[in-house]
Amino acid sequence: MKRTLLNKLLEWKNSNSRKPLIIKGVRQCGKTYLLKEFGKNYYEDFVCFNFEGNSLLQNVFEKDLNTERIITELSVIRKKAILPQKTLIIFDEIQFCNSALTSLKYFCENAPEYHIAAAGSLLGIALSKPLSFPVGKVDFHTLYPLNFYEFLLANGEDLLCEQLEDLPIAKLVPAAFAEKLEEHLKSYYICGGMPEAVDNWVAEKNIEKLDIILQKILDSYELDFAKHAPAKEFPKLSAIWHSVPAQLARENGKFIFSHVKKSLRAKDLEDALEWLLSAGMVYKVAKIEKPFMPMSSYADFSYFKLYMSDIGLLRRMSKLPAMAFLESSDIFKEFKGAVTENFVLCELVNKSGEIPFYWKSGNMAEVDFVVQSGMDIVPIEVKSSDNTRTRSLAEYSKKYSPNRTVITSLRNAGGNYVPLYLLWNSSI
User: Fold this and answer.
1) CA–CA separation, 10 vs 14, rounded Å?
2) What would you report as the CA-atom Rg of the chain, rounded to the nearest whole angstrom?
3) For the chain, counts of helices (H) and of strands (E)
4) Strand order across the beta sheet in which 417-419 lies
5) What is the pLDDT of residues 163-175, one digit of tens each?
6) How far is the C-alpha of 123 from the C-alpha of 108, rounded, in Å?
7) Residues 6 or more apart whose Cβ sits within 8 Å of residue 144
8) How far is the C-alpha of 283 from the C-alpha of 353, rounded, in Å?
């Protein structure tokens, strides 16, 4: 499975200022698989140490944080020498050993010749003891669920992707390409980008099996809450998590704390929400009333929408049947719009690593996303079909005269219209 983050890993490997690396990302987005493939293809040797339930391994780091002793004992455990520069050392599920997390600081300072990459549940890392985290002593990269481009590659569409990469942004997509891309986009809405789900979908196209896999991933997230969150916070984490689809389905999508649980107020839930955000499981898109730089200065972070990190999981959690995307029906029209917004957000975040904002002017107009692109602030209107009515975008343009606007839908029209299936290749 081809992942675009591999290019960043190669840069890390060859960097003179390389530090131990932590791959961030939601559980089961493919972090360990990517690191193993990286080690297999670009190092003479690699070894993966999994800390979950491994007391022998955890004890290596509990004695002290002497890097020479640690490397010696790890070599003994694997029954093969670990060599500087030549062996990629993978620390998997590192959140289960706070001392191992702390050791990255000492490897950075005292043994930078060893190439160490760690992966683990970000919820666990976010909840780790304060003294455990090696602030300033590690490099970070984020792995997201597969975006639509990576989904196309997983479906064997390498040549199609090459053709699209060379296509001028303002030019129409050839009709034969557009039809195929729309079909793949429907599949992506159903499947999402979690690697296990994508593998199964590519191999079998079996919706029942796909939903079993997606549900298993959702269940594993709940187990993650139980493992890492303090007992009193678990119900809050779970309640917020399960409320996301219903809140998105509301007419304006604004997240309302009282809708999570009537007995809880915002201040009771804010810490739990921050943990979910730190774990990358949800994205918080705050409202701005004026699209000026820096946008964060004009944002109201108490007025926001919550989206999920993967649209396949969103579809499964909301119990939306796959047929909603395969057949035309007004029954699911509104929620399909929310799924499309969530898709666009995930594509934008995957592309830039930044969470956009959205613009709202009283109760008169609302633009789905506003992003900074170079020195421009670009408003983005999202449509779930080929509908191009943009009253809110027209209102925004009337007030602020932006240099550029974007309408993304299924319409293949060129200019400021970006087809949903080409967001990965846009200049936003």
Assistant:
1) 6
2) 23
3) 17, 12
4) 299-308, 282-288, 357-361, 365-373, 376-382, 406-409, 417-419
5) 999 887 667 889 8
6) 24
7) 25, 26, 29, 193, 280, 309, 346, 349, 350
8) 11
Please give the pLDDT value at position 125.
Answer: 66
User: What is the token pair recorded at 355?
Assistant: 């969470």
Q: Is the pTM of this model over 0.85?
A: yes
CATH class, domain 6-142, is alpha beta
Residues in CB range of 186: below 8 A, 6 or more apart: 325, 326
Rounded Cα distance between 17 and 11, Å, is 11
* CA–CA gap between residue 410 and residue 142 (Å, rounded): 29
Tokens, residue 94? 């590192």
Domain ranges of the chain: 6-142, 148-425
Tokens 């997201």 -> residue? 144
Distance CA 46, CA 9 (A): 14
Which residues fall within 8 angstroms of residue 360, CB to CB, at 6 or more apart? 287, 289, 303, 366, 367
What's the pLDDT band for 35 if we cut at 50, 70, 90? Answer: very high
